[in-house]
Design a protein that fits this description.
- By secondary structure, the protein is α/β, with parallel strands linked by helices.
- It is built from 10 helices and 9 strands.
- The chain has helices at 44-53, 65-69, 105-121, 147-155, 211-221, 249-264, 275-283, 304-319, 321-332, 337-353; strands at residues 83-85, 88-90, 137-141, 160-165, 178-182, 196-202, 222-233, 286-296, 359-368.
- The strands form 2 sheets. A 7-stranded mixed beta sheet has the order 5-4-3-6-7-9-8. Strands 1-2 form a two-stranded antiparallel sheet.
- Strand 1 and strand 2 (88-90) form a beta hairpin.
- The chain is globular.
- Belongs to the methyltransferase superfamily. LaeA methyltransferase family.
- Keywords: Methyltransferase, Transferase.
Length: 371
């Protein structure tokens, strides 16, 4: 395969151990700007009392079944130089990277279930951009376990596919047209200009300081006529009927991330602020389109398809609810592991009850580089 990398002038820095609580300011500032007023995050004692009040309640049947739970396989990490927080591993900080999710087996299983969930919401599709079948090169930024890139490489066997991430947690056995590389996407990319037909970016919410600059890097490496596609989700759990009240664990879930993102200088309100479309326009993309979807959490929906989607959302969350929220609740908010466990127990109880008709929002935005 052709080497589309530029000379090594700004790639990922060597991985090194840093204080996991170090909080960078906005790009170029050197310090954190004046933060917005903190959100009303309920104290740990609230969840201890809730657990006592609900001690006699039955957690209920998760309604997922063993088949769904066993449908994903564990991916084993190949590098051990990770940060550890309360026994869970997180990537060794590379360059400007500050990913908030753990990268161990338990979290990887949850992400793989989430991939199946996201594919279900898009009616089995891996993308929404109008791609041609004869594209030559595709790039998956923030590839995670690599499961999307693997599926895409299978669907496009004549396309060279590259997946990049700050954690080397991808499997060794992959399609012959796919390779994985360690790269911090928040630094200047090292691929040559005009070499890619398609750039796919998924779930970098809370990890990017400057979305316009990120999309400018994608613009640079895309061929004229190539497409950028960005898939993001909101951390907020909402309801249309008021069942997710402001004292519930579900409602509080999003506040951990929004407040933590403020302290990190990396927003989690990408969907609320319409960041994807604005950043694509500023980067120079045209023919921008978007697709929105509400994703139910739990099996409460009456529609069979939505019910299945909700069950997988529940499975993904329950697989590792602690791993999703640990960094934000511990490092950013200051909760102990025990306090986080009490909270996540209440969260699972609410999901399993079926009484709270929660959903989260996701948005896919794609645009074309002018020819």
């Amino acid at each position: 395969m052709a080497d589309d990398r530029e000379p090594e002038t700004g790639g990922a820095a060597a991985a090194g151990e840093k204080n996991p609580g170090t909080v960078p300011g906005p790009a170029g500032s050197g310090e954190q700007s004046n933060p917005a007023p903190p959100l009303d995050i309920l104290p740990p004692q609230h969840w201890v009392q809730a657990a006592q009040d609900n001690a006699s309640d039955d957690d209920g049947d998760s309604a997922l079944g063993e088949d769904a739970a066993s449908s994903t396989a564990s991916i084993t990490s190949t590098i051990l130089n990770y940060r550890t927080i309360h026994g869970r591993t997180f990537h060794s900080e590379t360059g400007n990277a500050q990913y908030w999710g753990s990268n161990d087996d338990k979290k990887n299983e949850s992400m793989d279930i989430g991939h199946h969930l996201m594919t279900l919401t898009m009616d089995g599709k891996l993308y929404r951009a109008p791609l041609k079948k004869n594209i030559k090169k595709a790039l998956d930024i923030g590839t995670g376990t690599g499961i999307w890139a693997i599926d895409f490489a299978d669907e496009y066997p004549d396309t060279e596919v590259i997946g990049t991430d700050v954690s080397p947690i991808q499997p060794g056995w992959v399609p012959p047209n796919l390779k994985f590389e360690i790269e911090d996407c928040t630094r200047p990319w090292t691929f040559r200009p005009d070499c890619m037909d398609y750039v796919h970016i998924r779930l970098l919410v809370g990890s990017v300081i400057d979305w316009t600059e990120l999309f400018r890097e994608a613009y640079k490496v895309l061929k004229p006529g190539g497409y950028l596609e960005s898939y993001e989700a909101s951390p907020a759990m909402e309801s249309d009927d008021g069942t997710v009240d402001d004292k519930s664990a579900m409602h509080q879930w999003g506040k951990f991330f929004i407040e933590g993102g403020r302290k990190l200088g990396r927003t989690f309100t990408v969907i609320d602020d319409k960041v994807q479309r604005k950043a694509m326009e500023e980067a120079g993309f045209v023919d921008i389109e978007e697709w929105d979807c509400k994703v139910p959490i739990g099996g409460w929906a009456q529609d069979p398809k939505l019910k299945e989607i909700g069950q997988y959302a529940q499975l993904s969350l329950e697989q590792d609810s602690e791993g999703w929220v640990l960094f934000m609740a511990n490092v950013m908010v200051g909760w102990s592991k025990e306090e986080i466990q009490v909270y996540t127990t209440q969260l699972r109880r609410e999901i399993r009850s079926g009484k709270k008709h929660a959903f989260y929002r996701q948005r896919v935005v794609w645009g074309r580089k002018p020819e």
